[in-house]
């Protein structure tokens, strides 16, 4: 009986460590924003690239590289983080998006989402608004 319990504990421990490793310390990927208007240092309150096909293309790739590990491919959450397809389209969702990517999310001292916006985070305002532009295209009501 102890052998069975030990075996089960070993299997569960291995699965748990694999799951943690799969969403663990993964370095953010640089985003090439060539073709987008530079936005400067002051954060825009609304997405200046909404409907911009170049921004949407850049945003789709940037999301896959930097966000999908938690929010799921195609923004379809696997349960680790919110399903971003449910984020309100347009300016209505910009405020929440901006708040979250700039400040991250911390609960009870645990980081649920790191800060992604520069200067503290790795991504430029251009890259983040490009991601938001793509999210608008996959939003569901």
From TrEMBL:
InterPro entries: c550_proteobact, Cyt_c-like_dom, Cyt_c-like_dom_sf, Cytochrome_c550/c551-like. The keyword Signal applies. SUPFAM superfamilies: Cytochrome c. It comes from the Bacteria. The keyword Electron transport applies. PROSITE patterns: CYTC. Keywords: Electron transport, Heme, Iron, Metal-binding, Signal, Transport. Residues 54-139 form the Cytochrome c domain. Residues 1-22 form the signal peptide. GO terms for molecular function: electron transfer activity; heme binding; metal ion binding. This is Cytochrome c-550 PedF.
């Amino acid at each position: 009986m102890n052998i069975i319990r030990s075996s089960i504990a070993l299997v569960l421990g291995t699965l748990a460590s694999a799951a943690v490793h799969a969403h663990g310390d993964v370095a953010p990927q640089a985003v090439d924003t060539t073709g987008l208007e530079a936005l400067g240092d002051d954060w825009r309150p609304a997405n200046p690239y909404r409907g911009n096909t170049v921004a949407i293309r850049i945003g789709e790739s940037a999301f896959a590289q930097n966000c999908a590990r938690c929010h799921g491919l195609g923004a379809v959450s696997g349960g680790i983080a919110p399903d971003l397809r449910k984020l309100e389209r347009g300016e209505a969702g910009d405020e929440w998006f901006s708040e979250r990517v700039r400040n991250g999310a911390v609960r009870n001292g645990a980081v649920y989402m790191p800060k992604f916006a520069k200067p503290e985070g790795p991504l430029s305002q251009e890259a983040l608004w490009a991601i938001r532009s793509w999210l608008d295209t996959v939003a569901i009501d």
